[in-house]
Amino acid sequence: MRWNTPTVRGMLQQLKRLVVIETEEMYKARKQNVANHQALRPPLVVNHSPAHSSNSP
């Protein structure tokens, strides 16, 4: 079956309200965004020890 025909394009036009048609570039960009979002991030380091001041004994 040929996919780039007026009949198929008409069917896709009718489906636009139900589905999202994405190109290969759009798919790769979406997958890259998901991968970046799920990527490991460096740990947060919090120091809870009191700061040393010059007035400390």
What does this structure look like?
The chain has 57 residues and is mainly α. It contains two helices and no strands. It has helices spanning 6-15, 24-38. The relative contact order is 0.07.
Spell out the helices and strands N to C: HH
The span between the termini is: 86 Å
| C-alpha-based Rg, rounded | 27 Å
Provide a count of the helices. Answer: 2
Overall shape: rod-shaped
Structural class: mainly alpha
- The residue-averaged pLDDT reads 85
Biggest sheet character: none
Number of E-state strands: 0
- The proportion of residues in beta strands is under 5%
Low-confidence runs (pLDDT<50, min 5 residues)? Answer: none
Q: Give the proportion of residues in helices.
A: 40-55%
Please describe the structure with a list of short key phrases separated by commas or semicolons:
57 residues, mainly alpha
Topology of helices and strands:
Layout: H1 6-15, H2 24-38
Briefly, what is this?
The chain is mainly alpha-helical. 44% of the residues lie in helices and 0% in strands. It has helices spanning 6-15, 24-38.
